[in-house]
Amino acid sequence: MKNKKILLIICGGISAYKSLEVIRGLKKRDVSIKTILTKSGKNFVTPLSISSLSQEKVYEDIFSAENEAEMDHISLSRWADLSTVVLASNKQVFLVPAMNVRMWEHKSTQDNLSKLKSYGYKIIGPEIGDMACGEYGKGKMSEPSYILGTIENYFKNIEKNKKFKALVTAGPTKEFIDPVRFITNKSSGKQGYEIAKSLRDNGFETTLISGETNLDPVEGVKFISVKTAEEMFRETLKNLPTDVAIFNAAVADFKVKEINSEKIKKSENLDLKLEKNIDILSNISNHNSLRPKITIGFAAETQNLELNSKKKLDQKNCDWIIANDISDKTIGFDSDDNEVSIFYKNKESEKLLKKKKSLIASEIVDRVISELN
Ligand code: CTP
Q: 32 - beta bridge partners?
């Protein structure tokens, strides 16, 4: 963790004293620390004890004129490698909650927690044990050694994954009939974009090859925009070799045999001749020299999910098929949620229950990481 920058926000709570031990641990590991102490946090730890340990000034009122000139909440969040000036942050956020067991178990806390997790925030703890209020249960803040270990592992994993390359295809392809008309598939691209984000966040050098969607390109990822399946295939080939390739795109299975160079008038007879499009996934997973170490396909099925997915796994010679049941309207396509089953070539299949696409993405990426390491 040497030379990493961490911004710590200490809020009000009896366990705030543990943050002093965390600061000592981070200092020992040569991390630069800046600290924000909230007004209620000040009831539990003093700015003096924090600044003595961190050897840095403590930000108590980040909107004060003095701080505004020196470093405001935006630049504080940009400064850090690990930041908790939450809204302005473009860094990994860790939350270390502590509260009474009933408060922790309350539905509103749990609902908020799922929301925070869906933003990609990582939650450390809480643990089960005796609490300051005299009750026993889940709500105790994790011990400083555990907090430090988790942060250390986070940086270590990213460092380890930096040697890996990843490629993701996403969104629909368009097969033109004439300059204004085309055949396409239904696809928002959301799941593929979330996978690319999660790969990036985990340290992978990531390429995202995408058909046209309404989504913004993913920052920190090599982004290649394509229209047709042919283009997507060419760009995929150009970006090999890669350690893992995840084919999430909804590729049009058919293309028009002869594209009209002029707009077809409605007075003309339309005789549309289609031919099979190239199967990008099959081509890459059967490539002699450039096959990625892990090749993953998606399957959108309306029936016989297991049978059809296992068939695709075999026929397309890939390592995993991640299957969506698209007959369920509450998941997939335009929804922010998804529920998938993963069928593996070499092990038992598993189901990732309904959750935000960002969380499905990070569960998929976790599995990729453990397979690569
Ligand atoms: N795929 C691909 N190139 C194609 C068609 C599909 O790379 N021309 C990939 C998709 O990105 C997905 C997987 O193959 O990862 C399965 O796509 P799907 O549409 O479910 O399967 P198809 O092969 O098109 O079979 P069918 O439409 O008959 O179910």
A: 5
